[in-house]
Automatic annotation (TrEMBL), chains A, B, C, D:
<dbReference type="InterPro" id="IPR035904">
    <property type="entry name" value="Chorismate_synth_AroC_sf"/>
</dbReference>
<dbReference type="Pfam" id="PF01264">
    <property type="entry name" value="Chorismate_synt"/>
</dbReference>
<comment type="similarity">
    <text>Belongs to the chorismate synthase family.</text>
</comment>
<dbReference type="GO" id="GO:0010181">
    <property type="term" value="F:FMN binding"/>
</dbReference>
<protein>
    <recommendedName>
        <fullName>Chorismate synthase</fullName>
        <ecNumber>4.2.3.5</ecNumber>
    </recommendedName>
</protein>
<feature type="region of interest" description="Disordered">
    <location>
        <begin position="42"/>
        <end position="61"/>
    </location>
</feature>
<keyword id="KW-0057">Aromatic amino acid biosynthesis</keyword>
<dbReference type="GO" id="GO:0009423">
    <property type="term" value="P:chorismate biosynthetic process"/>
</dbReference>
<keyword id="KW-0028">Amino-acid biosynthesis</keyword>
<dbReference type="GO" id="GO:0008652">
    <property type="term" value="P:amino acid biosynthetic process"/>
</dbReference>
<dbReference type="InterPro" id="IPR020541">
    <property type="entry name" value="Chorismate_synthase_CS"/>
</dbReference>
<keyword id="KW-0456">Lyase</keyword>
<dbReference type="GO" id="GO:0005829">
    <property type="term" value="C:cytosol"/>
</dbReference>
<dbReference type="GO" id="GO:0009073">
    <property type="term" value="P:aromatic amino acid family biosynthetic process"/>
</dbReference>
<dbReference type="InterPro" id="IPR000453">
    <property type="entry name" value="Chorismate_synth"/>
</dbReference>
<comment type="pathway">
    <text>Metabolic intermediate biosynthesis; chorismate biosynthesis; chorismate from D-erythrose 4-phosphate and phosphoenolpyruvate: step 7/7.</text>
</comment>
<comment type="subunit">
    <text>Homotetramer.</text>
</comment>
Length: 403, 403, 403, 403
């Protein structure tokens, strides 16, 4: 289904060549200041082939709020948002080869199998354009999270192909034990990430290596994958709904629903599975009041009480037993190399005839940098839904408990 | 919430020290032959400290079907199942240290933060005992999947610590390109997996290495993690609901909801993110009628039509655009080292006092082998729910379409 | 929430003075022929102050399909529809009295209480304009139901104030035992209903009485309520999901979610509660092949098998145990007199000051005739969702059962 | 489906002749004092053929709490409850006629049509025994509502056949304008209702008339229906989720899901549809602090703020625009005459042969009195779910709003 969330409920629509793409967001708190200006920046960061910094006045993918606000305040009713498609003609791919061949590792064939019909652009809702509604909805969730708890969500590129920001080592099978990594989690900001355009890996040297690699693949009409890491700071403790909707389970669901994703790790991830418990366990220490964060939002300004204990290390990635513990949540998402490549591919037509597919046109050799705002948006949707579930619980507990 | 699934809806209950644990399964097809004998084997495989082979007559964790069947057939109404807890006394852990200290990397503190109360056994529903209901429900889903499409689900251990069944190599950053791995996916059965008790890694040499490693950690009162791979054969094409409930997203959600999981990979996974698209893409080939599978269920007996095209390679892991393509689905799940260890740990009490926690008693140094039936169960729940969504679609399409 | 349905999922948005109102419809079967022409007629029937017959070329409330179709066929992906609001300026009501007073029996105060804010037009989503999305979605559901099973849904006015089409009598405490009523259910069509514009009560004499009554109330700047009856013919047997989502429960939910509704009766309704069981019970008789129905769709063309037994009488209203039995479903919905009236009303301001409210402008003295397409739409949404649930069940039963 | 509610989620199971019936309740606030003693009274009131007063020490239908509490406090985890079936043998009805004939107006045939199989007791989950889980879950909801807001829910019989507590009159087409009725709503308690056993109509004269009527029908081996009215006092304002989940829509859904119900009215109901708006509208007046209520829970003790305005009359039944306004909510539910009667009925067998069905054994001539606790339970489930939705909203609004 095209809905996500229980309390903060998002419903998206649209494929590449229809009139528009968009989203309805249900459950937005009333009395929130909200305008298109809150939503547009992330849509702009998502746009193909550019970064927010290089194209500050981009006029495309403009969001129009349809409902749910008046005089700049939310009414508590559903907020619908629409973003026009520029190219609404079916057949835009206009490639007779494309009509004959299902693209390898693309969704052309599976959409045909599932629905008995397929959009002319191939895999209908599997298009990256589908993610626009997610990003628009995520921007609203983010604003709520920031205002309510000072939550900050920042994603950045951690590898392209075999080029890593923090290569796994014998000592650090996961970067979760690497102080340099932990320090980056503490301070990284979106501005910093975007300053490393176009790769969005916040390290000059690694970024250069990655950019070269992408260029190589582009030159060969090939493609390459990579990973993003996302950190969420100032998360209230107590979020996540056992047993099936553990916070990491919802994050994994959200991330693997993004096109082209192949893998998800919370905290220490696969590397952590190689560590002894005696090292992997995060001992508790007394929490100290937190200093103002990089982006200026002080912990102390949060309206939500913070736990009195925190962890000395953070291999857990801020979640224990499916519930946030107040430490930074961080996770890594793997993206495969894009399926559409210019290189000739020996494959088979819909009519079961062998042949060679050559995809004309410009193709993105790597989607990882552009996925940054999408990952941030999906993280925000998960957190916001969990926040509302916990607010309902806290509210009722306060009302019924004798304590 | 403690519910999973939309159409095949599972609702579990129970923690370690209450009267019983159990589950209600809603949406079970009527007229299905079903008895406790269909459910007990997986519950027995799940039991701590033993394998199905060594304890064939185990009398514990007996499932009692409460409702929904008559004369051995399902009625189409909810099937409730109950499994008694043997030790219902709170305070069983009986350790004054345990009362003072939240266990590092366990759920004690986060449950307290979330609910303002915690079960005496620590993290309430974070107990492994919670998974019993999942396994019971999964056994029903599995039976439906097997009868309807010949679906076979087999999980097996692929690594413990740094001991791998298929270590990553420069040529095969993911085993997805390794012919030996692909051949194993084709033939592996539960009987074979269990014959490699107690580690459940289906290779004598690797299994021995892993067993030694676990023994070492046990001796040191430490713990170690590892990974499981699960293959699902004979999956009908067309399963998975774009855009948010892609099949891999639901699998990731399901797997990360299992206690102690840290990571999930579909198909080529993180390794695939390092490959060029030209290698990673799975070209299409004409499908040939499939020979009878290892467990005797022939593809040709399936009541569901198979697609005319299949893929030559399978880096996609049987899913493209969030929808099954009919090839084997396989994925890998990472489990962290168990949090409860006998070694002394410097940590802090609930009352913010520094101290040393020593967890008395026997603790499982590695949960990976026992997780095999849990992973299989959750995979079955995801598949069954997707099957029902697709049956509704196919049914309506047939009724409304002019084709 | 602004969502309705589990399989055929509808999500609406919009209030009176925002940019547009609309809906996303998820779960629409693929390969269905669909265009705006399928949706517009019911939207036009819903428009204020007119009937479809008198204003055949009405240019307002035009639906724009945003997504989910290509070359006139549905893709199986979400169908978004948008209808522009003409008057988007807040403050249109422009009445300083209106700003001071919550309108008695309107939603102004409760929206303020719930959200801490209210739209300038008063009760935000309680506006009748909210129902546009329902009607648009219902039109798609109706088309599916008609094509798949020949389902016909027709609502008509059965009372305005004390003027009844079938007044309750000692012999017929409910019209369910009145042959004239049952005969009407058999034959009534939308064309017939609309031919009795503007009241939509399909009886010349009763219609005239009702029209006079409405005129009286209009002249007095007062308002009056009434009832609608809706019949659904050619319903497949087996629809409705025990125990909480019984078919009549879903219909009641759907109807009471329409603005201004106060009551719901299935079949014999409250009248039936006064009858002896020996009269109320519907004995079974052998079903005979049904002749082509009034609107030209023959039962025999249905692709869904009909039960071999039917009932001699139909006090049950086509539903027994929450499940359709194949007989006509019929129900009655009560609408209150509109809350906004021109007459002066002694009431109290938001600021707790007593005063007199006089609502300027033209107000509809009776909403019942206009509610006809809304009731039909909501009935279609309920039926379609139940159809899909049953298709999923039937599909799985066929696959797993030994029968 | 057998689930009800979004945030306070209830999942029931069980039919007449299986091992047990029961329920899982998810979303119960943690730290609530809860034991079987909170649940048993309503189960006892629900038992057939008796009232709480006459059988204070009834040992049947004992609830066993399976999970979710420790030391008398809820843990915030799912609470499972089980009630054994005494008669678990299928075929208990043991009537060869019953096997041949689907009972008229019962669910035998529709269950067979829906599922392709039927329980030996006839309509599986359509049995009144299914309601036990609802009552058990409702008791928990009620306790939460009472502690948090002083909510009081009391249902009572208002008519049996043509015998009314408040017969409709020309002046009062609905009792909503009758001061005697409104006064009863203010003061009626469960103790009072039960003191009028066995009819549960709180008026000696009306009760006697009704009891006589039921006796007459019993003597004739016939059956008769009737109506219940339910009042909910001390409801916080702001409950109910526009647009589809309006509070009256959820109540209608809940009530029509109870076996044997045919009709639902909120507030003035069908009678109100006959009134002029000028009379039906409820003018606002300044609210005055409310005196302690009949059951001793003072309004002033409520932890939830009450609105500053209330209504002078209450034709709305405490709900406007789908949202509670703080006034008493009241509604009426119609129950049909029980379908199983001793009288001979000419009908048709499953095999399409005409014949005569005589149902042996004792049959309840009227279910209305016993439905009292079921209606109360379902009302509590609706209110509690709405409370949690609103707590989530209020919590977030407080955190994000600038006001």
């Amino acid at each position: 289904m095209s809905t996500f969330g229980h309390y903060f409920k998002v419903h998206t629509y649209g494929e590449s060549h229809c009139l528009s793409v968009g989203v309805i967001v249900d459950g937005v708190p009333p009395c929130l200041e909200l305008s298109a200006a809150d939503i547009q920046p992330q849509l702009t960061r998502r746009r193909p082939g550019q970064s927010a910094i290089t194209t500050p006045r981009d006029e495309k993918d403009r969001v129009e709020i349809q409902s749910g606000t008046e005089r700049g305040l939310t009414l508590g009713t559903p907020i619908a948002m629409r973003i026009m498609n520029e190219n609404q003609r079916p057949k835009d791919y206009g490639n007779s080869t494309m009509d004959k061949f299902p693209r390898p590792s693309h969704a052309d064939l599976t959409y045909q199998e599932k629905y008995g019909i397929r959009a002319s652009s191939g895999g209908g809702r599997s298009s990256a354009r589908e993610t626009i509604g997610r990003v628009a909805a995520g921007a609203i969730a983010e604003k709520c999270l920031k205002l309510s708890a000072g939550v900050e969500i920042v994603a950045f590129v951690t590898s392209i192909g075999d080029e890593y920001l923090f290569p796994p080592t014998a000592i650090h099978p996961s970067p979760s034990t690497n102080p340099e990594f932990l320090s980056l989690l503490e301070t990284i900001s979106r501005e910093k990430v975007d300053s490393f355009a176009p790769v969005r890996c916040p390290n000059a040297e690694a970024s250069a290596r990655m950019e070269d690699l992408i260029s190589d693949f582009k030159a060969r009409e090939d493609s390459i994958g990579g990973t993003l890491t996302c950190v969420i700071r100032n998360v209230p403790s107590g979020l996540g709904e056992p047993c099936f909707d553990k916070l990491e389970a919802m994050l994994a669901h959200a991330m693997l629903s993004i096109p082209a994703t192949k893998a998800f790790e919370i905290g220490s991830g696969f590397g952590g599975c190689r560590m002894p418990g005696s090292i992997h366990n995060d001992p508790f220490i007394k929490a100290t009041p937190v200093a103002p964060s990089a982006t200026g939002l002080a912990e102390v300004e949060s309206k939500i009480p913070r736990p009195r204990l925190t962890t000395k290390t953070n291999n857990s990635g801020g979640i224990q037993g499916g519930i946030s513990n107040g430490a930074h949540i961080y996770f890594t998402v793997g993206f495969k190399p894009p399926a559409t490549i210019g290189q000739a591919q020996a494959t088979t037509t819909y009519d079961e005839e062998e042949g060679v597919l050559e995809a004309k046109g410009r193709h993105d050799p790597c989607v990882v940098p552009r996925a940054v705002p999408i990952v941030e948006a999906m993280a925000a949707l998960v957190l916001m839904d969990a926040m509302m579930a916990q607010q309902a619980r806290i509210g009722m507990r306060r009302l019924v408990a004798n304590v």
